[in-house]
Design goal:
- The protein is built from six helices and three strands; from the N terminus they run H-H-E-H-H-H-E-H-E.
- The protein is of the alpha/beta class.
- 20% of the residues are buried.
- It folds into two domains: 33 residues, no CATH class; 92 residues, 3-Layer(aba) Sandwich (Rossmann fold), CATH 3.40.50.1110.
- The chain has a three-stranded parallel β-sheet with strand order 2-1-3, sandwiched between helices.
């Protein structure tokens, strides 16, 4: 977990970059460091764990909450369920990969959320040449 001073420095750097680039830096930061889903009481939880396919990369930021596949699954399942998006772009399933999901706080959160089911979509980034040599 980051220290308060480290977090403050990150926020300050992000704000500076946002001012300089007209918001592009903030959007990039959020794509690579999304907020954890907020839990709702009394719902059956489904945890969607994965890489950019789960996160919703390629979907416009203002539409990701409706068009990423976890959001579509939420629509299909209805209000009895809460589908949680724990997707992180660029992450690997391999612990030896260049950016292992297992080293992320979302890994811990998704394992301890009390999900009835987990939808796992990892492995795409494991096929990059830097992570796998046939």
């Amino acid at each position: 977990m980051r220290s308060p001073s480290s977090r403050a420095l990150t926020i300050a750097a992000t704000a500076t970059l946002t001012a300089l680039t007209g918001g592009a830096a903030l959007l990039g930061y959020l794509a690579w460091n999304p907020r954890a889903p907020r839990l709702k009481r009394g719902r059956i939880r489904i945890a969607c764990v994965g890489d950019s396919n789960t996160y919703g990369a390629g979907v416009a930021t203002d539409r990701r909450s409706r068009h990423a596949y976890p959001a579509q699954l939420q629509d299909l399942l209805g209000e009895r369920y809460q589908v949680l998006n724990y997707g992180l772009s660029g992450r690997t399933l391999l612990d030896s990969g260049n950016w292992p999901y297992s080293c992320e706080r979302f890994d811990h959160l998704s394992r301890n959320v009390g999900a009835r089911a987990i939808v796992l979509m990892l492995g795409t980034n494991d096929a990059k040449p830097c992570n796998w040599d046939p």
